[in-house]
């Protein structure tokens, strides 16, 4: 809440104190009109603030910051070139073969500070795995960015917002609705005095209602006058190529946003033709990440190697190990993700006491193309893990977004016993409170952490790190940790038709991923204890129940096979854990139309 609202609340508190003092002994009849006026004013102000907060809550969605926190932090001292500072480099040959120290086309800081820019948009482009999202996160949170924007804003208020598209996320993480809702939320959060002017129709009973795309567009259109009068607005939009829809739609949306007064946008994407044509015409207002990161890659490789005791020992024995760093940087061609994977592979070689020649041989055998590298990694999975690898990737693909670690931990059990989830005992709880005892909860969390460590090792063995456990930084409970693709490019790769065909060939035609997911999700629901934080466990259940119903419905319409036993057991489990909190009633033992359940709920939480 901004300074204006803080002052209003302080004013209300002073008035309440005055009223308390004036009425502590007796009521002064002549002062009753003044008292009535003060109370009416406070009631009106309080009502306005309540409605503003309700509107803010309607704009905020649970995943609003999830993608930002999942993006890796920039390696220390990298990306300084974006502000005109060359990356440190100790290799003269590397400097001669890179743009380090010159940076002729990077005028980003000038554009940030420019009070009368010819264009309100700056485009950061780069090929897959070059580090665009990491750079955007770095910029959006850097003090140098804030300083430059403060210079641009001058005495005007400044609103900074960011949105990171994520093609593997929820609908609000990859759509226009999500983008506009996030931007409107940030504007209204930082400038609540603009709420009334941007959406006057919501200053009442509609305050908490869900937003439509047309409403969001109307509200942003209404803000034009407010922004002209009072506010400078800067927005980062990462991953335009991850938009779920016609690319022309998101281009038009960005162009429409850039037409707002007093606004600047920094957007990023892969260098697709449509983005080049729309955003890449001004040489001073775009850059290609892979052309500028040789110094950063050199620094990352050197620092990572020198943090390894085996490398330091090898370096003492043979100075030519330095050449290995240069070879990696040159072969990388600006693709940071490739470098990370290569360095990991080479460090494994050092652990095995590889010689310098063996290290170079290993490097030369690794494909320079990122997708070829992924294929090489899959082929290197041990034969004993091949079928589990294929099943795991099929689950990750069908999951339509990251799934909790617990879901993956049940896959092996279901493979061994198809009825495992149906037979699994419910976690013991105290019937009067609906939660387990503190001792039981502590025991569960100990077992969970142990199982998570085991799952990470299994994923490393079965997927060579292409799937990883991502720890939530926005929630205190480890139960929300999920399994995700190492990078968007990994998801794109394994979804290719020929790769999917390879997985199907390995698992055989009898493997049904929808049924597997129904059972794995059910087992996860049954394995959760009644943790004392009721709202948290309800959130977890909501992340599990909707996907289970989705996959059961897909199986019902695809194979005409209703998952009656699974749905019956789901209802029994939910009734056992949350007889009061869970309002959805499914008919036991009767084939139901899951389409009706899903359509009636839409995107609304099943657990409210």
Automatic annotation (TrEMBL):
Give the superkingdom in one word: Eukaryota
Checking SUPFAM superfamilies in the record gives:
P-loop containing nucleoside triphosphate hydrolases
Q: What Pfam families does its record include?
A: DUF7791, NPHP3_N
Q: Which InterPro entries match?
A: DUF7791, NACHT_NTPase, NPHP3-like_N, P-loop_NTPase
Q: Enumerate the UniProt keywords alphabetically.
A: Repeat
Which residues lie in coiled coils? none
Identify the residues that the record assigns to the NACHT domain, covering every copy: 120-271
Does the record carry S-adenosyl-L-methionine as a key word? Answer: no
DNA-binding: present as a keyword of the record? no
- PANTHER family in the record, alphabetically? AMELOGENIN, NACHT DOMAIN-CONTAINING PROTEIN
Q: What is this protein called?
A: NACHT domain-containing protein
Which species is the source of this protein? Microthyrium microscopicum
